[in-house]
Amino acid sequence: ELGQSLGRLGRALRDQMPAAGSVWGGWTPPGIHPDPRPPDEADVVVVGGGVVGWSVAYWLKMLEGRYRRHGMRVLVVERDPTYSRASTVLSVGGIRQQFSLLENIQMSQFSARFLRDINEHLGVPNEPPIDIQFQPSGYLFLASPEGAAELEANVQLQRAEGAQVALLSPTQLKERFPWINTEGMAMASYGLEDEGWFDPWILLNAFRRKATSLGVHNCCGEVRAFVTSANDTFPSEPESARIKYAHIYMPDSLEYQPVACSIVVNAAGAWAGKLLEAEGLPGELCQPPLPIQPRKRYVFSWHCPDGPGLSCPLLVDTSGAYFRRDGIAGNYLGGMSPPE
Ligand SMILES: Cc1cc2nc3c(=O)[nH]c(=O)nc-3n(C[C@H](O)[C@H](O)[C@H](O)COP(=O)(O)OP(=O)(O)OC[C@H]3O[C@@H](n4cnc5c(N)ncnc54)[C@H](O)[C@@H]3O)c2cc1C
Q1: Are 99 and 42 in contact (CB under 8 A)?
Q2: Is the CB of 23 under 6 A from ligand 1?
Q3: Which secondary-structure segment (H or E) carries 273?
Q4: ipTM
Q5: Distances from the Cα of 203 to the Cαs of 87, 184, 199, 274, in angstroms?
Q6: What would the pLDDT profile of 235-294 be if each residue is shown by its tens digit?
Q7: Nearest Cα to Cα of residue 312 among 196, 224, 220
Q8: 94-198+296-336, superfamily in CATH?
Q9: CATH T-level assignment (fold) for domain 37-88+202-286
Q10: Where is each FAD dependent oxidoreductase domain found (predicted)?
Q11: How far apart are CA 60 and CA 57, in angstroms?
């Protein structure tokens, strides 16, 4: 009788608090089961299920055939399926070709081609096609007289890599964007192709859906500790130790599942440095420390019905402050990155 009463009380409480029915507040993004247990073994454990983690998982499965490693068992571990603090979903979603580093330009050119043909790469049979809501729009970098030479050198590098970038004088700038105050401007560079912005949440889900369809596993949990060969009865030298197990802690629990693995990919984003402090990693394996730590970033959103409208580029001024249009209803978003 007591059991029945308690059962009734439990059901009544659950009905009162629908969000309490699940660890994740009753809402779970598609593709992630609230509590899938990790497998006992995986060849590769990817720590972090942001866009980088899922992209790594996708490419591992895509390229496994090339290296005759069919059937690679890949596990993506994400501690927060709501992605409330992940850079991927908090980002501005911009893609540009205008970088000062050769490698960044080359990666961005690859990304632009990849995104253009995204359905060929990430499409899954019998699933809806992917539309990342791409908004083509050039980045517009403004330069003061002091910064003009550097801007010009960057554009030369970008053009040498095949990027389509225009250099504008203040007069040309004013003609093209009459709403810009060109006082104190010496020059501007404007991307003519392969620049704009898209919805990073859609891209993340597209990678996840495709990787899952290729056999990648995922689980909710936090990797907090490792066991390495330095812990063996006959231990290897700490600097040549290999990770043997990743300990995955279940959400809201002290319970963990050890997953035997050969390779761990650190895709923990801003927490990548923190992961190297995980229990069980010999200090020698983590030297030099990763210079990555979470920093406060912000993006403001504002409504400005008389703003530049559809012709608004992603503008970066001489201070590094940036803004862009957000939709077509007079909304804008922008911010400023902290100094290095
Ligand atoms: C405000 C802002 C604006 C940006 N704008 C742009 C832009 O316009 N264009 C552009 O290209 N880039 C932009 N970026 C950068 C871009 O968002 C990031 O480079 C990219 O999203 C990084 O992806 P990630 O997967 O490495 O990290 P994240 O998306 O942060 O994913 C890392 C994941 O790892 C998980 N995790 C961490 N530790 C553990 C653990 N121990 N166990 C399990 N899971 C763990 C976290 O929960 C997180 O979900 C911006 C970033 C910010 C912050």
Answers
A1: no
A2: no
A3: helix 272-275
A4: 0.99
A5: 13, 39, 7, 26
A6: 777 777 899 999 999 988 889 999 999 999 999 999 999 999 999 998 887 888 899 999
A7: 196
A8: D-Amino Acid Oxidase, subunit A, domain 2 (3.30.9.10)
A9: FAD/NAD(P)-binding domain (3.50.50)
A10: 43-327
A11: 5
